[in-house]
Amino acid sequence: MRSLPAHGDAQELAQRKQLLLQQMALLDERCSSTSSLLAKKMRASKSRSLAAPEPQPAAAGETYAAPRRRRERPTTFHRAELPSSIVNPRLKRGGEAESLRMRQLLRKTVKSQEFEEAVRERRPFKGPVAGVFRKTKVEATMFPIRYRRGELPCSIEHRGSGNNLSWICPLLQLDYEHYLPIFLDGIRCTESPYQFVARQGFDELIEEAKGFPDCVLPCLPDLIKPIRLALNTKDPDIVHAALRALQKIVLSNYGVGEALVPFYRQLLSVMNLFFTKRQNLGDAIFYGQRKGTDLGTAVLETLELLEKTGGPNAFVNIKYMVPAYESCVQ
Hints:
Elements: H1 7-51, H2 96-110, H3 113-122, H4 143-149, E1 154-158, E2 163-167, H5 176-185, H6 194-208, H7 213-216, H8 220-232, H9 236-252, H10 256-259, H11 264-273, H12 287-291, H13 295-309, H14 314-321
Antiparallel strand pairs: 1-2
Helix pairs in contact: 5-6, 5-8, 6-9, 8-9, 8-11, 9-13
């Protein structure tokens, strides 16, 4: 439904319409004067042809030369001849504002509003856009509130070489079933310092748990929901962080990959969308591959890692969710 124009726009449209009508009247006047001038010339030429004497035969040794007709110069119209109603008296002659006004006026005369509407009606309807790659609304997480309340067992330590986390106790003494899902849920944060605390804290916790499968396997079902929510945002930065977290979970301990096989249907649906979302043709010099920020490459690496660590049933479940995937195990 078209919105009503504002008062200033309506006034400007009325002025343009008045200018166009005045220009059309001026063109009609010029056309009528030109047609009358042509009619006078035609009548004059007929009268001269009727009154002209017959050409006398040339004498011996002489040639007949036809009289030269005078060429009429084309009629030119200067700006001074235009009526004062067309030219805006408030603008200076030859100024930039006046030239801009005239260009806008000419553009509107070439393509009028009615012509644009007719063209718009004749355009074929392509249908609605699916928007499968469109970013969705990120669901709120409790991580910033927990951080402000002081419920996390860490704080930011500012150093000259960069920021780091300072923990109140050794990491293996913490309750992994309580804190590991909290830090993993915070990877959806995009504000500082919550983003740094969540991702750095999760990396340090999962790195310290290597060799201790009892720290990761009991809380594995609680880690699926944060990863799925991060993947469903379809934000490239958050999706890439979720893929990196999933890779670190799989590589943390032996047997974690096989324990993840029942949860493939919750995680691989979004990976199927971004499986072919590559910005290159495999060139290692490409910036996205060198920096590890190419989303399609990260999805492929994650699927290959899941297949290698998921046991004999991993490829069948991956192929069911990502049909374009090919096995990397010989």
